Structure prediction request, 365 residues.
Amino acid sequence: MHQNGTRPNILEFSRESLAGVMAGLGEPKFRAGQLHRWLYSQQAISFASMSSIGAGLREKLSAAYEIRMPALLRSESDRQACDHDAEASTVKYLLRMPDGELVESVLIPSGERLTACVSSQSGCPLQCSFCATGQMGFSRNLHAFEMIGQAHALHHEALQRPGGRLTNIVFMGMGEPLLNLDNVFEAVSTLTNMDYRFGISEKRVTISTVGLIPGIERIADSGLRTKLAVSLHSADQQQREQLMPVTRQYPLDELGKAINGYNRKTGLPVTFVYMLLDRVNDSPEDAGKLARFARRFLCKINLIDYNPIVNFQFRPAYDDTRNAFVRQLLDAGLQVTVRKSQGAAINAACGQLATRPDPYGANPQ
Ligand code: SF4
Prediction:
């Protein structure tokens, strides 16, 4: 007899490698597809419940493998910030992965949309200067099932809301998705399988990056119709490097070529995310640089607020400054949206996710 936890977790196998699992059990390949459907469409939590799979195979699977899913530990709502309007509140969830890693995901309402913000890594190795996740260090990449599990968990939570239904998924939580792209692709392909019970259109999925060029090129060549968001935060190379040290390896002119390639190959726009930081990147000169950089591309610009994190050196831009910045971009013919920060009260907003106590006091625990 195996002891609990000693058998491999079947969820760690990709769809493709499940064929090898079946071969190892002396079963034909097509059984892998059946098993995948049970795991990710039916979201079965035991082999015994997989009624279309013969009893013999179910026993073999139970003897050799386990199904260990992420568990939702607790949630925290910024309801107070939304005048107790349950439908409008942003909710942050803490999930425990099967090996004990803690990961945060966020459910964000916005008009008709209900978006699941999913983490792709536990922690992050990139240490962007404004980000609580980066400051907590890097633990590991998440498996595809751990990202799918976040989306499924938030989907079930969404269904509890009056009229609630998950409409969008963004890979923008903890971590840099393009450092874990194989698993992100695997997760996207399962989540967008329209034959599955939870099937969401690729167009409603966004993958975000700080601008890792090899990953952008892979996405451009992948045939995926997901959206791409590039966190720019500055169109000045030196300033970008100060905010996001990894961008030393990916200078703006090279990034520009990759984005051109993405536009050309996919026909899709890219969204440039730009966080306005008081007296750092919010001057008319900064807006001018951004306009000159962005207007070469098929793109939209999403201006976001900085969410103050205790002990970080940044502050959000003032309203007047933000308005002038927006006007300058609009005058340059760019498409601009301004996203007011949501979830800041519960440290669920951009750059605030962190699951461990840290010296910056960003952790709500
Ligand atoms: S902003 Fe994104 S890439 Fe940068 S440290 Fe935070 S999680 Fe990592």
Notes: The first helix runs from residue 15 to 24. DSSP finds eleven helices and twelve strands in the chain.
